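## tool: complex_structure
## caller: assistant
## args:
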Amino acid sequence: MPEFEELVYREALKAALREELARDERVFLMGEDIADPFGGSYKVTLGLSTEFGTARVRNTPISELAIVGAAVGAALAGMRPIAEIMYIDFMTLAMDQLVNQAASIRYMSGGQVKVPLVIRTQGGAGRSSAAQHAKSLEAWFCHIPGLKVVMPSTAADAKGLLKASIRDDNPVLFIEHKLLTLQTLKEPVPVGEHVVPLGVADVKREGSDVTVVATGRMVQLSLEAADVLAGEGISVEVVDPRTLVPLDAEAILRSVAKTHRAVVVYEAFARHGFGAEIAAMIAEQVFDELDAPVVRVAGANTPIPFAPKLEKMVIPSAESIAAAVRGTLARSL
Amino acid sequence: MTAVPVELLHAMLASMWRIRAFEERSIELFQAGELPGFLHAQIGQEAVCVGTCSALNDDDYLTSTHRGHGDIIAKGGRLDRMFAELYAKETGYCRGKGGSMHIFDFSLGILGANGIVGAGLPIATGAALASQLRGSQQVAVSFFGDGATNEGAFHEALNMASVWKLPAVFVCQNNEYAESTPRRIQQNIQDIAARAVGYDIPGVVVDGMDVLAVYEVVSEAVARARRGDGPTLVEAKTYRYLGHYVGDPGLYRTKEEVEEAMTRDPLTSFERKLTTAGILSEEHCRTIEAGVRLEVEAAVEFGRTSPEPHESIAFEDVYA
Ligand SMILES: Cc1ncc(C[n+]2csc(CCOP(=O)(O)OP(=O)(O)O)c2C)c(N)n1
Ligand SMILES: [Mg+2]
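## result:
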């Protein structure tokens, strides 16, 4: 049995970074304001530049394109860079290097090279950060062959998935949720070597009536909804894919085959998103198992508004998830 | 100073105090938990805002940044609608949908503060292009920080504006820091103005704590732009008194450094100049300050008592 320690999400991320920096000298970190004494906008890297030096934990100019591009170049040249892009919204400035370069180079070169890099970034709403600092853009990246996309929902997963991402030989976009990073809740996290393989979903709660497939912070809200629904006699199974690419289709389909109903919960703009992909997959592969249409609970198709009152309206809540679950139980095919 | 009309000198001082008072009050309100989101205060940089905008017409264009309250105020932005926006109220400039970092006022040519570092420069370039195409004589000014000069957008905008000889003025508010990162580890150059050489446009360094010096330099750049002679890069050397955002303790710089900058306070030094020259009495200065503080208080009250946005506003204006 592994030993556990109580860590908040942010500390779990830092533990993974620290352990991997110590384990492999090819690993290094770069990003805006990640070095001490500031230690990153969300303080994930606080202490690491002091411990490992500013050569390996380095501040960069405000140059997202060059940060991601330099990660690509360093990866091609044998390093294992971890670049931090402060907000996923700023990935827009670095898209060429990630999409046309990092994701394509191995294939385009006929398999001559690997591009082992991680881009850590954070996304999501909930802090009144408005339209340029609060988006959930994972679907864009899931669309691109050659990239992997990871969204941890717990401290233990944050650590285990980050370690796996760093050891992976492909470009990985690792998306933290800003509210999870700021959360003060301590969770048990395995000490030391704890690697959660990419592409393995986790059933966060077992249930028999409805399958809720949720990502990132939405896993927490879905678990809250499941608690409420349990009081109404509704048994919800919450499946967290943990990595969107590669996707553990098997785990999701197995759950749906058991419950016969599915609700997909994600914070991003609803249309053309993760939910559509999961709904299509379920329809294509286990249509006969369904007792009700697959339902999506997601962000509204609007930019993220600043006002707290409006911001709440455009992202899912435990209440809207619970309502969708009740709705799906009220339907039959 | 003698060349500047006395009314303009008065207006400049009032505008600088308006910014200072607005920022001080917004910080208090933020710390009291009345304002959502986060704030970046422009205290210390008032002379750049006011010196620049005093050289502009109402219909000239402006782009601003995450640290832009002062820019907006100097261009004539209404304090009540700004506070209402900071309060996330329906009467705010953006109906509560933008917040501190995203204030727009198209009636004043303000094409937006911006949460994306460097994003304003290409937008100002485009506004300058529109002016050139229409022959409207409007100038577009872009404010940005020292950190922004390391973004590709800075370089692409300057290059494009230079080859097309656009009526643009790029004003860097060099406060020596980008968040926690001092300029010396972000760029090798001593003066950001040196980057103008790469685009064969004038690059001018000016004391950003001296409102009249900024006014003079920008006036010349604006005149050049209106003549059709193309853009200028102005580097105003200034300082950010407070942390990057309200709540940032600023551990990455020394107390001595901050205190030294504060000895060059743009308001104090301008008042000293005005009083020494006999243009304003000390008493008059205090009357101006007291007047804008009342203005600010009324604006706070407007923001505080305004209604929250109606729920339907969340779904409006996604498309025209
Ligand atoms: C494209 C982009 N990258 C990073 C950030 C995060 N960020 C916000 S302000 C800032 C520092 C900006 O420094 P500077 O341009 O000097 O302006 P100052 O804050 O000093 O006014 C950074 C890195 C951002 N908002 N946009
Ligand atoms: Mg700066």
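## assistant note: The domain at 4-190 of chain A is CATH 3.40.50.970 (Rossmann fold). Chain A touches chain B at residues 32-33, 35, 37-38, 41, 59, 61-66, 89-90, 93, 127-133, 300-303, 305-310, 313-314 (CB under 8 Å). Handing back to user.
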